[in-house]
Amino acid sequence: MKTPVDECAGDLSKSLLIDTLAELFAGNEALFRGLAIHPHWDWSTRYPVIRISFAEGVLKSREGLDARIADLLRINREALAVAVHPDLDIAGAFGELTRKTHAHYSQRVVVLADEYDKPILDNLNDRDTARAMRDGLRNLYSVVKGSDAHIRFAFLSGVTKFSKVSIFSGLNNLKDITICAPVRRFQRPTCPCRSALRSHSASVA
């Protein structure tokens, strides 16, 4: 599984793209009738979606980051109706969530992360805190590599060039599909997001 990473300056366009991907993989066909992607998508298959977003608020400590991640995992557990052992740490809880969701729905999961690097960017003036945020995010995202067998598609959006951040040092399955133009570029045949989705569609056809 290749994990596309979109580094784009437009917060609205990234969030809109994440929302669109979530609805596509959830199989909400009615939302896409009459649109270009409709005849190219396999609407017979619905995938469970795990969504992670750091777009809201500003986190100023590792403890705050861990608390936010724990809450995001709770929200996903409740939305997916999947139980996870309460005594697990963040990496263990995320890993068990992906495994149990795969088993519960008999479909590998889709992981969508919006503003994956925001906790670091919000603390660039405090180097120690920025490093602590980096380590906390690395702990979270490392699960994507370990859960590869349970993840159908993962997409992360952010601002920082992922090759410049040590968050993904353990991942070798990332694909940079940087977008710098507004979201309307998604309409163009050469858009890398469309290429990534075409690859997904072809693999399930």
Please characterize this protein's 3D structure.
This protein is globular. It is of the alpha/beta class and 205 residues long. The protein contains 6 helices and 5 strands. The two termini are 16 Å apart.
Sheet with the most strands, sense and barrel status: 5 strands, parallel
Q: Name the beta content range.
A: 5-15%
- Distance between the terminal alpha carbons, to the nearest Å? 16 Å
Low-confidence segments: 181-187
Write the layout of secondary structure elements.
Blueprint: E1 3-7, H1 11-25, E2 49-53, H2 62-80, H3 90-105, E3 109-114, H4 118-121, H5 127-146, E4 151-158, E5 174-176, H6 192-204
Parallel strand pairs: 1-4, 1-5, 2-3, 3-4
Helix pairs in contact: 2-3, 2-5, 3-5
Characteristics:
alpha/beta; 6 helices; five-stranded parallel sheet; Rossmann fold; 5 strands; 205 residues
Summarize the model shown:
With 205 residues, the protein is an alpha/beta fold. The chain is 42% helix and 13% strand.
